[in-house]
Amino acid sequence: MSDFNLGRRRIMQVVGAGMLLPGLAPAVIASVKDRPQLTDGVQSGDLLGDKAMVWSRTDRPARMVVEWDTRSVFSNPRRFVSALADAGCDFTACVELSGLPADQAIFYRVHFEDAQSGVASEPWFGHLRSVPQQRRDIRFVWSGDTAGQGFGINPEIGGMRIYEAMRLRLPDFFIHSGDTIYADGPIPAQIATESGRIWCNITTEAKSKVAESLAEFRGNYRYNLLDDNLRRFNAEVPQIWQWDDHEVTNNWSPGKQLDERYRSKDIHSLVGRARQAWLEYAPVRRQRADQGGRIYRQLSYGPMLDVFVLDMRSYRGPNDDNLGASKAFLGREQLAWLKRELENSKAQWKVIAADMPIGLGVPDGEVSPGLARWEAIANGDPGPAQGREREIAELLGHLRARQVHNTVWLTADVHYCAAHHYHPDRAAFQDFEPFWEFVAGPLNAGSFGPNVLDKTFGPRVVFEKAPAVQNSSPFAGFQFFGEVNIDGQSGEMGVVLRDLDGVSVFEQKLQPV
């Protein structure tokens, strides 16, 4: 797949632990205690054309300096400098690298320079492979749900080990399908699990309660970055981030009633603080739309693949019975964008990265006694499309009418893994071409499922793997990620669902039309 070999990757991380490579000298020589510190490693993300984003964080007002080269000795580095990282952005910085040659190994090193003294930190190293312009093999991974249900970083089992399992697959990039944090899920020191075994967590003050303040939301991201596996993964695998509900609070939508744990009951203010923290910590390219807060976007990865990153949270209407007339889920503007960009895509495969599944019922209590409230698209009624389902029906009908082929949906959210095949012959709504949806997760959280399928779009469970005991701990092994392999010659797509140790539990081959 990639020209990076595992040995080189490990060497780079040893170098990144603090050695200075040729050509990198601190702006001012100073003792370690006087230098800015890189507190949370580095990340890259949102590869697009000849560009890539690089993120890091420091401990004081400073500017991030990123240098990249196609050789690990940095004989001809190109230099990029961030805006000032200060308390207003929690000392995070993100810069866009440009001019990257196509389909090349790109090595980068990051340091910070103190805003007043010019003293430089020691460097941290990372690498990525730039976007190809020609057909070649592609491998990427996806999953969701990090540090949920109180299951945080457990040093007794080596931390969040699934990130190491994904890293060892040598993917070109990773899609985080949402629930990048659990802002509403405190991390206790210990949890008694389903087997009676005690789960032991690293704890922090920010994770001692639900996140309400901006500082507490930021602290949720910093908690995850304490994990060695995650920091190593971040330095080696470019990322595409989505968000879902737990970046704010469970099952949030407009009108969400916050429980007694929250001092303020204003969901809109809570969402604003949560979005700011997400944007500060994600290695994403800021967009001008929605006051710079838009999350949905398209990322093209050469002639073989386009990725359409959805936001199924920001534009929805309130969670309710999800019946009757069309109700907002993607929202009209995002839906129009998705229809247009899918139709215009020239890529062989069009991956729709969704933060929630289409056909699985995801309950959210009751509207009234006996009348279910629904969190996702499905409404438990197997008949014609109603409520939020109507947006999906409109999209699927458009794709059929415009002959848009080779779409695949990837998602997480429900804390188990599954493969669903949708076909109009089994459906109440039939104006669409058959397609696949693959579900992965969780990364490091409680395991649940399986959920009940809604038959409106004719889904069939081809495979699912879920625990017998709900909210099973990671000890039980029901932690999953998905892997996609695209053959550069034949165009065949292979989808693999893998467990905590990277072992395949299901594989499906898809042929392009």
TrEMBL record:
<dbReference type="Pfam" id="PF16655">
    <property type="entry name" value="PhoD_N"/>
</dbReference>
<protein>
    <submittedName>
        <fullName>Alkaline phosphatase</fullName>
    </submittedName>
</protein>
<dbReference type="InterPro" id="IPR032093">
    <property type="entry name" value="PhoD_N"/>
</dbReference>
<dbReference type="InterPro" id="IPR018946">
    <property type="entry name" value="PhoD-like_MPP"/>
</dbReference>
<dbReference type="InterPro" id="IPR029052">
    <property type="entry name" value="Metallo-depent_PP-like"/>
</dbReference>
<dbReference type="InterPro" id="IPR052900">
    <property type="entry name" value="Phospholipid_Metab_Enz"/>
</dbReference>
<dbReference type="Pfam" id="PF09423">
    <property type="entry name" value="PhoD"/>
</dbReference>
<feature type="domain" description="Phospholipase D N-terminal">
    <location>
        <begin position="41"/>
        <end position="129"/>
    </location>
</feature>
<dbReference type="InterPro" id="IPR038607">
    <property type="entry name" value="PhoD-like_sf"/>
</dbReference>
<dbReference type="InterPro" id="IPR006311">
    <property type="entry name" value="TAT_signal"/>
</dbReference>
<feature type="domain" description="PhoD-like phosphatase metallophosphatase">
    <location>
        <begin position="142"/>
        <end position="494"/>
    </location>
</feature>
